[in-house]
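=== Structure Prediction Worksheet ===
Name of assembly: unnamed complex
Input type: mixed (protein and possibly other molecules)
Chain count: two
Listed entries:
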Amino acid sequence: MNRVLVRGLFAVAVAALPVQLVVREVGSEPYPGLYQPSFGGTVAEGLDYQTYEPLVTVIERDGTERKVDYRDVLPPTPVLPLSVFRSAFEDDKRSQDPQTARWLRSRLLVLDPGSDPQSATIEWVRVDRQIGSTRSQVAEVAKTVVLDVRGG
Amino acid sequence: MAVARAALLSRFDRWVDSGPFTARDLAIYRILFAVLILVRVPRFRIIDAYPDSLYHPPPGPFLLLTGFPPAGTMVGIEIALSVVLVALALGYRTTMASIAATLLLLYGYGTFYSLGKIDHNIFLVILPGVLLFARWGDALSIDSVLARRRAAGLRRAPVTTIPQWPLRLLAVLIGLGFLTAAIPKIFYGWLDPRTQAVRGVLQKEYYVNGRTDLLAPYALDMSSRFLWELGDIFAVAIEVAFIVCVIRWRAFRVVIAAAALFHLGVLLTMNIFFVSNVLVYGAFVSWSALRPVKVPPGRASPLGAARPVQPVGSTWWHIAAVVTIVVGGAGIWGLRQVASFPPTSWMIMIVGALVSVWYLARQVIRLLRHIVVRPREIDVRDRGRRAVVADGREVEDDPTPASTSTRQP
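=== Predicted Assembly ===
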């Protein structure tokens, strides 16, 4: 291959590094992109750290409530389930789309075929945890998403 | 100024062109790579279980689509990828197969990542597109057989050297990729002794993401702040080491060997598979060193070059190859729908770790021999100059024998 082209390839690869870092910091990670996982936001100060998790509550036609694990709601997923769930139900545009509600109802019926879910509430909670301890405490409900999943 | 610039560029070119990789090394790796991916082709069609309202592509070309592709399209991608990987394994139209493999993997994984999370297997995706320039189809391949026929017909010797720069480029890309991970870690305080970054990641994976298998519970119980801080430092250090050690092939190989062991440790304690990275590191292994006959660096296998040409019409070669590849690829895809294949992820991680331990042990033994034993003859090409130590005297390499100097050690 042409010598100048080879040098150019190396130069482009190196020059792309700061651009990639800025793009990820300012916006979000593009694909395709030459990245590896940074786990940048998971550092704990001392022994305390926080996580951000979903609590799913389904209300049936007869008024009963049942808690559902978010992992059970999802079909087989090729990537981390929490990330998929967050992408789906943390963003208002995606979570409030009627197609999302219909899909969620179908998933809840897969979990419990005899049920008739009317609404699903997803509470995004901030959980305080401590390194070296199994204790955790829900510090606050950061966001609540309610979906109308009635059939028909 | 111009002279200095020319000298710098010349030095860069020599560095880029230097390497120990032979056509056979890359050929063996090509076959391993293609076969291992072939038995692990993802079920891209599972994306059909998600509605288009959840389509959340990352910045990039997938923004051009408005939703997930239909299941039929993704099944087609799976079959096409299987066929292309068989072509790659057999070394038929290796250039086109390499490009197709990269594009199909890019597309297939891109649909997965449009669920809102990117898994970082980009090295594996781009690898075929990079190594095609190293002519990884030049040996142990249908292409090489056909090339010898053409060369014989034109009464010229087939090309036997392979370019080294694609391997160097791949190494640089890996180094830069890992820097995108190391730099944020440094800025977010991973090296701060007050923070317990690795421990925090482990706990999150355990309690939030449900990764509780293997050694995760035992790792969770480890309370030594010193060891956890060492873990933080090691994680950052190894990610930086890739780009630093890319300068020398031996140093880079030491880093990827250590990284393969690190990935195994992450798998055991956090249940996170980095199979794609370990698979990519295999590109830098001298697979032909397993042969009894040593092949000079940069040259193709002499056995391959000397094999007599078969008097078979090339048209029949092409027809037979295409039929085999299409039937084989589709057949293997079909077999995977009804039968379960062995867990290759574990196999790749364990074999990667074993090869790494073997390589690191060799480096330690080599180092000890340098320090402890006075060798009769040492090949020091990896120090950037060739010198022969004979009976304790060191002779500096020089193309003009008259200017050769000797000195007592």
